[in-house]
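Fold this complex.
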Amino acid sequence: MTTRDTARDTVLGRVHDALGLAPRSPVAVPRDYRRGRTLPDDERLGLFTDRLVDYQAQVHTCTSAETPATLASVLTRLSASRVGFPAGLDPAWLVDWHGEAVEDRADVPAPDLSALDAVVTASAAGCAETGTIFLDGSADQGRRALTLVPDAHVCVVDLSQVAVGVPEALARLVPERPTTLISGPSATSDIELERVEGVHGPRTLIVVVRTDA
Amino acid sequence: MSSTFLGMPARPPRSPYGEGHLRGDQAFPQAAARELGNRQLRDNLHKATRTIRAKRLAVTAELPDWEELRSAGAALKNEAMSRLPELLEQLEAKVTEAGGTVHWARDAAEANALVAELVAATGSREVIKVKSMATQEIGLNEYLESQGVTAHETDLAELIVQLADDRPSHILVPAIHRNREEIRRIFLERIPGVDPDLTSVPAELAAAARAYLREKFMTVPVAVSGANFGIAETGTLSVVESEGNGRMCLTLPKTLITVMGIEKVLPRYADLEVFLQLLPRSSTGERMNPYTTLWTGVTPGDGPQEFHLVLLDNGRTAALADAVGREALNCIRCSACLNVCPVYERVGGHAYGSTYPGPIGAVLTPQLAGTHAAKDDPNASLPYASTLCGACYDACPVKIDIPSLLVELRHQTTERTGRGAEQLAMKAVAAVMGRPKLYRAAQKAAAIGRIAAGRDGTISRLPPPLSGWSESRDTPAPPRRTFRDWYASEEGRRALAAAAEHQDLDETPEGER
Ligand code: SF4
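Structure:
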């Protein structure tokens, strides 16, 4: 038997012993907290926007048809010239924008992503009550490094994807996918508790909510 | 199967003496006296704990189902602990299925050796680290250093602490004992090539750290992390953070090594819906922390392509074997109990001598590491590092009854040590405190003790059998009214409501003395 097997069996054995010395009775988990909530579109949008803004994220709303124009104006205002996007992003989204659009590939080394001024992605879900967006690495969201290294992230969220609270939002996810929850831009309060935005992740987060999608 | 499965269960061992950071070098009263001399520490802590407390109260009040969430959180942790063997095996199977490798470590030495071996296999002499209590507990950085491997902490506060050869003083804001000017000087001295004109503006300091660490994120091929939760059902692990250093470490390196205490396992993915509400709101007082990463094994083309999970015991099974004390394993390390503790607020984290400071540290540390591994073990004094005011219990998102656990630990300590009068006195106290009615009656009777107090409000000598206690310390005169009395009164409620508005919760009871 190798040391490794021994360690495994010893630890599991100790757990058994501990529970044998002081047995626990079966536990019923009370789930009386709020779950399965719904809210009308306008209220969900209001709450989501309020919470995102509270986290220093910028919020724009538009219809699906206005997506290209909205993204073009957002990127122009950012003064971005090179913008990355994941391979699965709807190509129509960037047609109104005239800077350089760079399609990401898995073999692009992470340091190269620093050369991007911003990145545009879709999202997997949103949570109104906490102002959180969820990325799960689907083709229109790309690998995790893509939304991490560049300094600005422009994320398109469809209002239909935005759930009321955390339980409702998590229920929309596929557990096994690599998932990133984002609530506002990167921040620290480590120096005398003074909030500083943007330590390592993107310093700017812009959320475009499509109200009819 | 190990032979320990058969026959009479044996009591699992504590974390062994001499490895890691579960024991200070001074008993709490001495260490506290030393720390009390640090004015900077006290001022910073005061400001920090007040601010975080106010934010926490605001965001927990926002949720009408906060109490229901706490109950669910407590029950889920209890469920996990009672099903620990099957959940750990399930977690192991799921992580393996998803392309990860699972290792087990009985104690700190074994975990350190394992991680060092895994790092050596990659050929790297450097690792980047996400802030992790478990690796701090086992002293991983120091061990790696002894093996010629440099561990770079990437959380801003941890970086400050590491660059200053210091130790964290708070679970959540480890460098809270430092001010901006000190941090500026640390950076100027220790960060190679930093701009000599660096000012002490926090944004500029953070930018200097960003530039320094970005180079590490991009070049170091191995990361070491802890985990906030591990989901048995799916094999999913999670790290909750703010700065993005976590995302960097969990995403960019080729190899990821995660060290997780075995108590961090949760049964189901859906259970995250409870803890992702409880943790950020209790911890930083935010509705949600800026970043949370959830990963399951390896994903081709995205993130580390090699993943190792080290499951750590190091005294956790010893805590689990204690019918009362094991509740401390439910802790999700939010630090809410630190921020409401009047003792912690004054002495800070260093006085506790352990990776786990404050009220939860006073319970968890003696359980993990024991109280009699050394002569005059400093951990033996930890259960006394509390006024038993109960604020930690009210703040705890998973409803750990820390005051009762402290009383139980005191009881156990005095039973074992057998220290004459003090033992008798403490036994009596423990016996009384175990029953709330008697405890209240005793507190009222204790008010008589004021007569014996001198002008400075302390009793320097108590009659036997309590003299054994008063010989070694000044005993504060009991309050005219007990805190419980005051708390329950109309006046107390009004004062608390007013204090809540000014977030001065700690000041009022003292003024009542
Ligand atoms: S004991 Fe409770 S309040 Fe204290 S850190 Fe742990 S979970 Fe938070």
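Confidence is low (pLDDT under 50) at residues 427-484, 499-513 of chain B.
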